Amino acid sequence: MKNQEDLLWKFDWDTLVVLDACRYDYFNDLYLDHVTKKGVLSKVRSPASQTYPWLHHMFPDKYECHVYSAHPGINSKGVARAGTWKADEHFKTIDDLWDWGWDNELSTVHPTIVVEKVMDDINNYELRDKNIIWFMQPHFPYIGKFKIEAEWVNDKRMLKHAWTRIIEGEYPVSAVREAYRDNLTLVLDSLDSLLPNIGGRTVVTGDHGELLGEYTNLNRKQRFGHWPGMDLPELREVPWLELKL
């Protein structure tokens, strides 16, 4: 299996699409039914099991890239959400989609917001030479057909995180896996509407994977989500789909 960071600059991509928390096995199972542009799919090893250490490994220097970011941690505001890595010090320009496109009810940015912004630029401007398009899905909260969302409690004075609901046992493992699949399906369908409009060479990948109830030897909290420093295939094996559009 190849290392993701070794491939990043060997394939001369024009557009890098990042699906946050995207496992290879689920992607491999679903993408042919939801992405009409068929490329070459490989299983690659992510250098990290969380976004921020992944960014440290994958983008240690300054890059002539424009980023469409649905992720609050990848921002133009000079804010480091974890550690010292700041996106504005590593990328040329950033569209803070998370800043204006965040849905407070969903507690995330819906993938159609990302597609609409990129399509608006395609229709009205010429896309920059290198672009990174960062979708929040399939990362929780799960807003697909089967939903596991954040929940307002205490008369809407406090937001109970979707992942807290899972860890506390509100949902069986089977439901969590179904919700993850549906979240991935949601973003793949949105991506499919975008890909035919992007020219050049495109890669679709993930930053890390997601634990969905595996490893019963771990406590319930560790069995779900993505935790730093965990070297497990469900967290480190991600898709690398090369498309020549």
Please tell me about this protein's structure.
This protein has 245 residues and is of the alpha/beta class. The chain has a single domain (2-244), classed as Alkaline Phosphatase, subunit A, CATH 3.40.720. The chain is built from eight helices and 14 strands. The strands form four sheets. The protein has an eight-stranded mixed sheet with strand order 1-3-14-11-2-6-4-5. A hairpin with a 3-residue loop joins strand 7 and strand 8 (147-148). Helix 2 crosses helix 7 and helix 5 packs parallel to helix 7. The relative contact order is 0.25. The mean pLDDT is 92.
Instruction: Tell me, rounded to a whole number, the average pLDDT.
Output: 92
Q: Tell me the CATH topology.
A: Alkaline Phosphatase, subunit A
The secondary-structure class comes to: alpha/beta
Q: Write the H/E string, N to C.
A: EHEHEHEEHHEEEEEHHEEEHE
Gyration radius over CA:
17 Å
Fraction of residues in helix: 25-40%
CATH class equals Alpha Beta
Task: Count up the helices.
Answer: 8
Brief overview, please?
30% of the residues lie in helices and 24% in strands. It has 245 residues and is an alpha/beta fold.
Fold blueprint:
Layout: E1 2-3, H1 4-7, E2 15-19, H2 24-34, E3 40-45, H3 51-58, E4 63-69, E5 91-96, H4 97-101, H5 111-124, E6 131-135, E7 142-143, E8 147-148, E9 151-153, E10 158-160, H6 162-167, H7 173-194, E11 201-206, E12 211-212, E13 224-225, H8 233-236, E14 237-244
Parallel strand pairs: 1-3, 2-6, 2-11, 4-5, 4-6
Antiparallel strand pairs: 3-14, 7-8, 9-10, 11-14, 12-13
